[in-house]
Amino acid sequence: MAYTSESAIDFYNLLAIDYAIQTGGTPPVKLLAAATPAEIAGQPTLYIVAHGLQGSAGHYNADEIAGLISGAVSKHKGVVALSRVVFLTCWAGTSPPGGESVVDAVAKALSSYKGISVRGPKGASILHRLALGGDAVVVDSTRQGIKRAAGATGSGPATTTTAGITKMTNAFAIQAEKRKKYGPSTEEEKAIMDALAQPDIVRRAEAATKATAPFVAKFVRSLDRYQLVIKRGDDWSDRVS
Fold first, then answer.
1. What is the per-residue pLDDT across 74-94, written as a single tens digit (0 to 9) for each?
2. Number of domains within the chain
3. Which long-range contacts (CB under 8 A, 24 or more apart) does 95-102 make?
4. How far is 219 from 169, CA to CA, in rounded Å?
5. What is the pTM of this model?
6. Residue 199: domain span
7. Quick count: other Cβ atoms within 10 Å of Cβ 236?
């Protein structure tokens, strides 16, 4: 497993690192640019942890990170064991206007090595080993969410005047509200920030996961209530080289 930038020490990336380790990832956890060809190509699954936008992961655009991964694989001296690349980065599976998604770019760059699967979320991803039971949730953070009144039915576009609609909001407003009420206390945050000085990133990730479990659970329940969670089957992009 590798992560892409120094920003991987923040809460989100610590949660993703813990999630990756608990769902099959193995150390080392390090900067992607510092990973050896053997560390990238010599293991079955490579998890990429970073913040992401459409067409970028960490501080690499789609072509740059595709070149890093495919370049390391081509330089590997032994048997290429890599069979799966998983991007735990928001929007890795969505293309920017006129561009290519990170998932598509990496799958294309690895086309000489048949059968390597590449996947990434199509929106803002939430990964939490404790609050979500090892599950991953992908959020549509680009639109307004709709909370329906009890007993209301129907789906699709709606306005504030549509019958059965009680409130409209978006993922960022919900996050701010739940973060204020259920987020880690100042003491918990301080303990985690102090832990960042330790060399063991695995222990830091475990601490972040424990501290944020109540917040993430409440946050995801609210996102689901407002119909902001992308339904299963449409939430991840999967490609094979």
1. 988 888 889 999 999 989 999
2. 1
3. 95/54, 95/55, 96/53, 96/54, 96/55, 99/54, 99/55, 99/62, 100/55, 100/62, 100/63, 101/54, 101/55, 101/62, 101/237, 102/52, 102/55, 102/56, 102/57, 102/62, 102/65, 102/66
4. 13
5. 0.81
6. 2-240
7. 20
